[in-house]
Amino acid sequence: NVLGTKNIRSDSEYYQVAYRVGQRLAKEGFSVVSGGGPGTMEAVSRGAFEIGGQAIGINMKYGYKERKNSYLTKAIGFQFPYIRKLIITSPATAFVFLPGGFGTLHQLFEVLTLIQTKKMEPMPVLLYNHKYWAPLLAFIKEVMVHKLQTISDEDDEFYQIVDSEDHLLDTIKTFHKKRKELQEILKDHSVEEQGE
After folding, report:
1. Of 114, 128, 132, 158, which cross-links 119 as Cys (Cβ 3.0–4.6 Å)?
2. By the 8 A CB rule, do 85 and 120 touch?
3. How far is CA 108 from CA 56, 90, 138, in A?
4. Euclidean distance between CA atoms 52 and 66, whole angstroms
5. Residues sharing a CB contact under 8 Å with residue 20, sequence separation 6 or more, in sequence order
6. pTM, whole model, 2 decimals?
7. Which residues of the chain, if any, have pLDDT below 50?
8. Does residue 149 come out as left (phi exceeding 0), alpha (psi in the -120 to 50 range) or beta?
9. What is the tens place of the pLDDT at every residue in 149-184?
């Protein structure tokens, strides 16, 4: 899943990053899931779509209208934000957060909370661009972890900052490979137990 703001234009640095990330994920065989709207969501969808990849939009309906970009291979619209939020987190292999607003932060903290409370398996939560995320992460580390101790040092390790698209892609590919290997081991083990 790639998340970020709807409020960027196609000439923005982050639009271009999202576009390239969408292309590269699709080339590796990953489906790209986004909120389905404009801005970052359009960019990542467009990147995947233009090279023949899957671009899935988990978007919002506003009355009779559905907010979706034209680069989606599949769109699922929701009337209620809380249902959309649940669905957008479920099919993930990784989460990529590009700079965004309250909605992006809301989704980030939702994912971190689900991992912290073990309602979601740990997976890469990648925050793109250290300069953008540094003030928030300093607050988390200094205030939440050390001063108030409302979260632990381990909780602070559920995410990582990446400053390059290569690092981002390598992290996702490595995690996906290890997950598939583990699934094969578990599958083989299950077959052996059934045969006894």
Report:
1. 114
2. no
3. 19, 14, 16
4. 23
5. 47, 165
6. 0.90
7. none
8. left
9. 999 999 989 999 999 999 999 999 999 999 888 888
